[in-house]
Amino acid sequence: MNALDALRRRRSVPSRLLGEPGPTPDQLRAILSEAVRVPDHGKLTPWRFLRIHGPARQALGDLLAARALERDPAAPQAAVDKDRQRFSHAPLILAVIARLTPGHKVPEQEQLLSGGAVCFALLQAAQALGFGAQWLTGWAAYDPVVTARLGLEENEKVLGFIHIGTAAEEAPERQRPDPEQLLGDWTP
Ligand SMILES: Cc1cc2nc3c(=O)[nH]c(=O)nc-3n(C[C@H](O)[C@H](O)[C@H](O)COP(=O)(O)O)c2cc1C
């Protein structure tokens, strides 16, 4: 498959449809090597990865469930259970963490965008190796208690949890915007 075909066929696989096997250590290395090739103004490397796999997935789910009840003691049981299972489907989750340098001549927006490109590159590399993947955030990515437990520093943000695994079934295609509708000509 050429590169354009691969891009045309790209789509996310919902995390609940992702299971074993996940990437081998060599495949993970290949995926990460691809992801760090993103455009990065000023070579700041304004991102890092956190691997969540094995029993750490359930531990993070338990942490989320406890925090969900702390945030809202009346949270419905079904919602809390969903949070508990959030990281238990895909065998591997890579949290992409932005490491921002405030006040740098490379604006923070560009540092964040570079991290967004990393997230997308992870999806593409995982798909190129035959895996399914999905980029998720959810409330936990923005919750200060959860991010502190993930070990984030003051200048860091979760840009996404990239869930990677083997798709149990083909994901449905979603309707895509018509690019012609989005294209305008600048006229002087
Ligand atoms: C920054 C970001 C965060 C996202 N977070 C969620 C999320 O928390 N829950 C969700 O259902 N989809 C989320 N999505 C959407 C999915 O990643 C994905 O786009 C969607 O499942 C459609 O798949 P596609 O990649 O084939 O368009 C997010 C997308 C982005 C870019």
From TrEMBL:
Its cofactor is FMN. GO terms for molecular function: oxidoreductase activity. PANTHER family: NAD(P)H NITROREDUCTASE YDJA-RELATED (PTHR43821:SF1). It comes from the Bacteria. Belongs to the nitroreductase family. InterPro entries: NAD(P)H_nitroreductase, Nitroreductase, Nitroreductase-like, YdjA-like. It is an enzyme of class 1 (oxidoreductase). Residues 169-188 are annotated as: Disordered. Residues 7-165 form the Nitroreductase domain. Keywords: Flavoprotein, FMN, NAD, NADP, Oxidoreductase. FMN binds at residues 10-12, 37, 41, 135-137. This is Putative NAD(P)H nitroreductase. Its EC number is 1.-.-.-. Binds 1 FMN per subunit.
